[in-house]
Amino acid sequence: MKRRHRARLAAGILAAGVFLTGCGGNSNIERASDRGSGGASASGGGSGGGNRAPDARPRQDDGPEGEQRSRPPAPDHLSTFALDVDTASYGYARRTLADGRLPDPTTVRPEEFVNSFRPDYRRPEGDGFGVTVDGARSADAGWSLVRVGLATRAAERQGPRPPAALTFVVDISGSMAEPGRLDLVKESFGILTDELRDDDSVALVTFSDEAETRLPMTRVGENRGRVHDIVDELATTSSTNVEAGVRTGYDVAVEGHRKGATNRVVLLSDALANTGDTEARSILNRIDRERRQYGITLFGVGVGSDYGDAFMEQLADKGDGHTTYVSTTEQARKVFVEQLPAHVELRARDAKAQVAFDPKTVERFRLIGYENREVADEDFRDDRVDGGEVGAGHTVTALYAVKTRPGRTGHLATATVRWLDPRTRAPHERSGTVGTAALTSSVWGPGHDSLQLTAIAAYFADRLRGGDLPGAPRLSELARYSTAIAERSGSKVVGELTEAIRQADRLLGPDGNGSRDADGGEASGDPYGG
Q1: DSSP string over 85-129
Q2: What pTM does this model have?
């Protein structure tokens, strides 16, 4: 996904291995999150009247109200960020915990934990977003949780959509021999081949120490068997030269570029680069150039118990794409059968959100996560500044911890999302508001399961990276709340979240500190030793 950050990640962290941010510009703003009831929601796509952010210039495409967002407590009380739907951080954290280790705090991105769960937000009838804003009181006096939820219209499984031109770049280096790596990639690719439509096209590039084109851009149609045969023959070889794979992949994608189609490179790798150009700049520049010239985006799928998280995220960010992580066949099926087709059909380009908190009722606020997605407040309506690409059926959630002014009531915040039409690139906006009346009940009270789940995911991520959010329960309490939601809903994914929280609680121990091993991970001992 494309975006201009105020603070960019250092390129050098690339040399390690498909799915929002923001903060104003002032130093006295924090970050936090949550969702509750009593908020406003709105749905819709292109046009129509509606609420505007306080500084909005009149636009004929402004939409109805329904959402909100914020930055750290700056004098302007604004929070601005580019939308994103990455989930790799949560998937990799779950895998690491299941292996008896605590994740490296630098790989924990709270927004990707939160966005791994999809609340039932109102969706628009056309392109663009439905906007929901709600909140509730936290356990810390004076602090509340405010949630901003955005949702796009789901794709019709057999409905019309642009054809896809997908170039798969598959890592077959020695590190991919571990169970749950190349074998899972092959199975995933096979699943997707059967799901693609006849007018879609695929290409396949493999890489180890060198890159090789196994299949040029080919219409799926009568070639499914040929694709399956090529995938079945894949086997691991030697070292990892990601640069060669990415460069060759983009060569093939450019050569097979289809006008009017969704052109995308899908990188499947553990992203553990050890040969070739392992510096970020040259690879990122190539990805950025082809995105701008040909509209080719990148979807990164991570695998393996050791995974180059920072590497993959930078590649996807520069390629205006997304990242996810898979470790089981079930997860692979979800990504390649449910999520990748959704990425093919775009609902919004260059999507950004801005939340304006009311200084009359809000003393300060904190946004949880999204540090890598910041956009300058003044760039919110500058359509030359990159935002996020969002496909069909996605939800994006931003969570804030908000400290309200004692005794003040009324308007709390206005959230506005801005995006470009995926076909015409015409700008549209939609806004939503929330007031202090939404914060009368406790987030942990009855009837707040959706908000509670958002809060649990955010508090869990913040704890893993050593944060101190106001009103954060102990991990054991989070596990108890999560268990109750799983039992009431019968949700398997919530049950998986519960187990991850319990494992983290065991590894951290009574003092809350897991000892680090030499590799920067956590030495667990007996993961069930308490």
Answers
A1: ---HHHHHHHHHHHTT-PPPGGG--HHHHHTTS-------SSSS-
A2: 0.79
